From TrEMBL:
Domain Transcription regulator PadR N-terminal, chain residue ranges per copy: 23-89
InterPro entries to which the protein is assigned, alphabetical: Metal_resp_DNA-bind_regulator, Tscrpt_reg_PadR_N, WH-like_DNA-bd_sf, WH_DNA-bd_sf
Organism: Arthrobacter saudimassiliensis
Protein name: Lineage-specific thermal regulator protein
Length: 112
């Protein structure tokens, strides 16, 4: 398999799932760099210049809330999935499960 071809398709497949991953991870408060590490450990190779605009967009949409922790030497902005974000996450995860079932059935040659 051509590595560039595979890499491009894997990147495209994962691009839409980063929002799901962020909303899931941030059910517990987390800051940007920690989120980058958690995403990387889970197999989502997201760059900081992609993640931080995404976090700002999700916050603007009301899906995340944020607060500053100034107790450490370096202040950190912590994000948490809002109630609206949790509701959206639940709906997206249900759709994800439905899509997974449909793809599996198609792959096995069964109609959905």
């Amino acid at each position: 398999m051509d590595e560039d071809l595979l890499g491009g398709h894997l990147q495209e497949l994962r691009r839409g799932t980063v929002v799901l991953a962020c909303l899931s991870i941030l059910k517990r408060p987390g800051y940007g760099y920690g989120l980058l590490e958690a995403l990387g450990n889970a197999g989502f190779g997201v760059e900081a210049n992609t993640l931080y605009p995404l976090l700002r967009r999700l916050e603007k949409q009301g899906l995340l809330t944020s607060s500053w922790d100034t107790e450490e030497a370096r202040p950190r902005k912590f994000y948490t999935t809002s109630e609206q974000g949790r509701e959206l996450l639940d709906l997206l995860l249900k759709d994800w499960d439905d899509l997974h079932t449909s793809i599996r059935q198609l792959n096995e040659g069964r109609p959905s």
